[in-house]
Write a structure and sequence with these properties.
Helix content is 42%, strand content 18%. The protein contains 12 helices and 8 strands. Strand 1 and strand 2 form a beta hairpin.
Length: 270
C-alpha cells in the first residue's frame, strides 16, 4: 500500500490541502465542520488497503486557505470537481460526514455522471430555529479572549463526549485553526438544508445512510438538532439503504474505524 501523503490543490480562491493514499477505485472523504481531513486519520489506512482514498480540508478549515468570500454548498461541490480533475479522476464514490455529507449529496445531484456510490454519514436535519442558532453561532466564529479562556472553552466543548484526551486535543487544534473568521462550511450546510431536501431527491446513485446510535446526543444537548427532524433523508432518497452503528457517536469515524470501515467496504462491494 502506498503511504498516505499530503499535498495541495491550487485554486483561484486559495490552496486546498488533501491527503491521498492507496491504489484502486477512488473514494473521497469529506469531513464535518469544524474538523479537517484529520477526521479520517484512523479510517484512511484501513480503506486504502483496497482503494485510492482521498480526504480534503474544506476551504476555511484545517490547513486549507480561508476563502475570500462566503462559500455555498455548491461552491464546495465545485472544489471537489476541481480536485478530481487535478487527479485525473473521472468518477468516484464519496463518503461525507455531517457537513461533508451535504456537500457530497450536492456533488451527486449536480454532477451525477461523476459519482459512483454515496455514503451519507450522520447527515442530520434541522428545523428553522435550529438553523438560525447554527448560522448565528458559526457566523460569529470562535473568538479569541484576552485571558486565554477560549482555549479551555474549546477543550470543554466536547471532552465528555469524545472520550479520549488525544482525540479531543485533535478536535481543539482544528477549532483553533478557524479562529478569527466565520466557519463557512457549517454556515453553508445550515443555509442549504431546505434546498437539500429537493436536491437529494434527484439522487440516482446507490446511497447508504450511515448513522451512529448516539450521534445526536451532543447536538440535542446543544439545541442544534432533534430526533424528530431526522427522517427527511430516507424520504428524500427512498432507494437508499440505512445502517445504524450501535454505540456510534458523532466521532465514530475516529472511535470505531474498524466497524465503520467494514460497513463502508461491504456497501462499496455491492
Amino acid at each position: 500500500m502506498k503511504p498516505i501523503k499530503r499535498a495541495f490543490l491550487d485554486t483561484e480562491d486559495g490552496q486546498i490541502l488533501y491527503r491521498i493514499g492507496g491504489e484502486g477505485e477512488p473514494l473521497l472523504l469529506l469531513h464535518m465542520a469544524p474538523r479537517s481531513s484529520d477526521e479520517f486519520r484512523e479510517l484512511m489506512p484501513i480503506l486504502a488497503q483496497n482503494r485510492c482514498v482521498i480526504a480534503m480540508d474544506l476551504m476555511g478549515l484545517g490547513d486549507s486557505d480561508k476563502p475570500p468570500r462566503e462559500y455555498s454548498v455548491a461552491d464546495y461541490a465545485k472544489t471537489v470537481i476541481a480536485l478530481w480533475d487535478e487527479l485525473g479522476i473521472q468518477k468516484s464514490s464519496i463518503l461525507g460526514n455531517l457537513t461533508g455529507g451535504y456537500i457530497a449529496g450536492e456533488v451527486a445531484a449536480a454532477y451525477p455522471e461523476r459519482v459512483d456510490k454515496l455514503i451519507l454519514c450522520n447527515v442530520v436535519g434541522f428545523d428553522a430555529q435550529e438553523q438560525e442558532i447554527i448560522l448565528n453561532r458559526y457566523t460569529e466564529g470562535f473568538k479569541i479572549e484576552e485571558d486565554g479562556s477560549h482555549l479551555m472553552a474549546r477543550w470543554l466543548a466536547r471532552v465528555n463526549d469524545v472520550g479520549k484526551e488525544e482525540l479531543n486535543h485533535r478536535c481543539v487544534v482544528d477549532d483553533l485553526k478557524c479562529f478569527g473568521s466565520p466557519i463557512y462550511p457549517a454556515m453553508a450546510a445550515a443555509s442549504y438544508f431546505l434546498d437539500a431536501q429537493a436536491r437529494f431527491s434527484l439522487l440516482k446513485c446507490p446511497t447508504l445512510i450511515l448513522s451512529g446510535e448516539k450521534a445526536l446526543d451532543i447536538l440535542e444537548k446543544a439545541g442544534l438538532a432533534k430526533a424528530e427532524n431526522q427522517f427527511w433523508l430516507s424520504k428524500a432518497i427512498p432507494h437508499s439503504q440505512k445502517v445504524e452503528l450501535p454505540g456510534g457517536t458523532l466521532w465514530m469515524l475516529n472511535q470505531m474505524p474498524e466497524e465503520v470501515a467494514k460497513i463502508v467496504v461491504d456497501f462499496l462491494r455491492i
